[in-house]
């Protein structure tokens, strides 16, 4: 468990649809999630059968797990929608890994490959992670010798760059991406998202949940406990890592107690401590 002392928590009232927590919360609404995917991909979805924010997929203990921003399914397709406000150095390899994990998660032992649904990953970045200044990059497996031949493996990756000129995109794409880039809602659909954001900001339980979420992202977003344990088991250094992680958890809990925004139980859960440890720390802090 590491503390990112450089990462500041954005005030809840200043959150926009592009901020991770607000994006997760708004996209739990199936109609909004459906509308976002339809507008970005230029498709029609009859009904989303399943929508989940922050879905974690772990193939096995020693494999790297992934945490999807927004995961959705309809009858024939699966969608992963990711939003990111910082640079991503290895976007190609990240998307490759996500694609593979999605497929493995879907195909049960003994199933035929025909059971695999079409898989579409949508990555929306405020930075140009590809670096060619296009507003949209669409990737699928095409034959190098004859680009008219598509492997047709039903795996598509779409990367959006909010910083590029969007004149070449469809009107529905532009309206949504303009809203995400500027915060100005011009269409009925983006106004619906804006209303949802406004309602969530008035929700006190969600305000508190946001603080819990931010602490989680600061200290546990990369599954550092599991990675440390896996490395320790592999290299015989688990004991030293666990001690260091526990000390960091104590430090973080003390800071949270001073902020006075979470209950003792919530701090214990976020930092992986016992309620007795947190209660003892609370007596010292107060």
Q: Would you give an account of this structure?
A:
The protein has 286 residues and is of the alpha/beta class. Helices cover 46% and strands 15% of the residues. It has 10 helices and 6 strands. The protein has helices at 20-26, 30-41, 91-106, 171-182, 188-201, 204-220, 224-235, 238-259, 264-271, 275-285; strands spanning 50-57, 66-73, 77-84, 118-125, 136-139, 155-161. A 6-stranded mixed β-sheet has the order 1-2-3-4-6-5, with helices on both faces. Helix 3 (91-106) links the parallel strand 3 and strand 4.
Key traits:
single chain; 286 residues; alpha/beta; 2 domains; six-stranded mixed beta sheet; 6 strands; globular; disordered N terminus
Short structural summary:
It is built from 10 helices and 6 strands, in the order ααβββαβββααααααα.
């Amino acid at each position: 468990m590491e503390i990112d002392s450089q990462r500041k928590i954005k005030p809840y009232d200043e959150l926009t649809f592009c901020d991770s927590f607000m994006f997760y919360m708004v996209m739990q609404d199936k109609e909004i999630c459906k509308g976002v995917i339809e507008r970005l991909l230029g498709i029609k979805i009859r009904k989303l059968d399943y929508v989940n924010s922050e879905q974690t997929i772990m193939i096995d203990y020693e494999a790297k797990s992934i945490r999807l921003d927004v995961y959705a399914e309809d009858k024939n397709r699966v969608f992963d929608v990711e939003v990111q406000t910082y640079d991503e150095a290895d976007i190609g390899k990240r998307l490759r890994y996500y694609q593979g994990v999605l497929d493995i998660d879907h195909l049960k032992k003994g199933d035929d490959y025909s059971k695999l649904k079409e898989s579409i990953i949508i990555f929306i970045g405020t930075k140009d992670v590809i670096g060619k200044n296009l507003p949209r990059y669409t990737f699928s497996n095409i034959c190098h010798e004859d680009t008219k031949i598509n492997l047709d493996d039903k795996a598509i990756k779409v990367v959006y760059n909010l910083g590029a000129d969007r004149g070449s995109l469809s009107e529905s794409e532009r309206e949504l991406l303009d809203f995400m880039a500027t915060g100005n809602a011009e269409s009925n659909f983006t106004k619906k998202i804006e209303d949802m954001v406004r309602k969530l900001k008035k929700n006190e339980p969600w305000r508190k949940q946001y603080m819990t979420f931010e602490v989680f992202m600061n200290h546990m977003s990369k599954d550092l406990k599991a990675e440390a344990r896996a490395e320790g088991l592999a290299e015989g250094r688990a004991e030293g890592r666990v001690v260091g992680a526990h000390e960091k958890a104590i430090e973080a809990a003390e800071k949270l107690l001073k902020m006075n925004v979470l209950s003792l139980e919530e701090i214990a859960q976020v930092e992986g401590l016992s309620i007795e440890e947190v209660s003892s720390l609370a007596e010292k802090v107060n």
